[in-house]
Amino acid sequence: MSTDRPGARWWVPDDVSSGALHSGIEACQGCELYRDATHGVPGRGPQDASLMLVGEQPGEDEDRAGEPFVGPAGKLLDRALADAGVPPESVFLTNVVKHFRWSGTRGKRRIHQSPSRVHVAACGPWLVAELSLVRPSGVVLLGGTAGKAVFGTAFRVGESRGRMADWPVDFPGSTSTTPVPDWVLPTLHPSAVLRSRDRDADYRTLVDDLTLARSELGAA
Questions:
Q1: Sequence-ordered list of residues with C-beta below 8 angstroms from that of 38, at least 6 positions apart, any chain
Q2: CA torsion sign, 198 to 102 to 149 to 14?
Q3: CA dihedral defined by 56, 132, 118, 10, rounded to 10 degrees?
Q4: Which of 86, 104, 113, 194 is most buried per CB count within 10 Å?
Q5: What is the rounded distance in angstroms from the CA atom of residue 81 to the CA atom of residue 52?
Q6: Using CA atoms, how far apart are residues 190 and 78, in angstroms rounded to an integer?
Q7: Which residues, listed in sequence order, are joined to residue 186 by a DSSP beta bridge?
Q8: What is d(CA 217, CA 51) in angstroms, rounded to the nearest whole number?
Q9: What's the whole-model pTM score?
Q10: Which element (helix H / strand E) includes 158?
Q11: Domains of the chain in sequence order
Q12: Is 28 helix (H, G, I), strand (E, B) or coil?
């Protein structure tokens, strides 16, 4: 890590509790993204959730609210979870990057810019900490950035979505005491569904994958 991207490990508390993680993420300066963000955005949901959903980064609405998945993509995700038979309030929602990266504005709204690999790497310790807090049985990866954060740069959503996989034992930042989910399931990011030219079909794909996740939890 460079001096302007020392990584989040210096801000991750020894006491992995919800309040400590919220405070640590808000204070984090592990990369330069904090400078232009309104808030650090921690995960949200039950601390004993069986299912964790991991997306890319906060958007405009999430950055202002300080909570993940509260904008249009979050509303679509809530609807997809409900259609899959998963109560939205029962899952833990988070992102691999905790600050909003943006470039320029369109009207009053800031334009989303995808985080780079160095931003994802800098934020990695927060995801490890959230795994230690929640200890989920399964993890659903929403989109390519989340998939690459876990499986590396060769990951492709189209090739991997809908297929159960194992959590990598060499995930960066993990230790011998880091909880390992029983399974991982990649799928589409809800924002990709919103942008899709075939939104109905891609929405159905997202619901089908979330239904598979629910079935896997029920079989455990």
A1: 63, 64, 66, 100
A2: negative
A3: 130
A4: 86
A5: 12
A6: 10
A7: 141
A8: 8
A9: 0.95
A10: helix 157-160
A11: 8-219 (3.40.470.10)
A12: coil
CA angle 165/118/46 to nearest 5° reads 50
- Please answer whether residues 161 and 209 qualify as being in contact, where contact means their C-beta atoms are separated by less than 8 angstroms: yes
In the numeric block, which tokens belong to residue 57?
């980064």
**Cα dist from 152 to 6, 57, 105, 157, 195, whole Å:** 21, 17, 31, 12, 25
Residue with tokens 């959503």: 157
Residue by residue, pLDDT tens for the chain (220 residues) are 555 678 999 999 998 999 999 999 999 999 999 999 999 999 999 999 999 999 999 999 999 999 999 999 999 999 999 999 999 999 999 999 999 999 989 988 999 999 999 999 999 999 999 999 999 999 999 999 999 999 999 999 999 999 999 999 888 878 778 889 999 999 999 999 999 999 999 999 999 999 999 999 987 5
Tally of CB atoms within 10 A around 159? 10
Six-digit token string for 52: 């964790």
The first and second tokens of residue 63, run together, are 């950055």
- The strand ranges marked E within the chain are 51-55, 92-95, 102-106, 109-112, 138-142, 183-187
d(C-alpha 90, C-alpha 92), whole Å: 7
pLDDT of residue 143: 98
- CA gap 62, 32 in Å, rounded: 18
Distance, in Å, from the CA atom of 28 to the CA atom of 12, rounded to the nearest integer, reads 8
User: What one-letter code names the amino acid at 33?
Assistant: L
CB 215 within 8 A of CB 85: no
3-state SS, residue 201 = helix
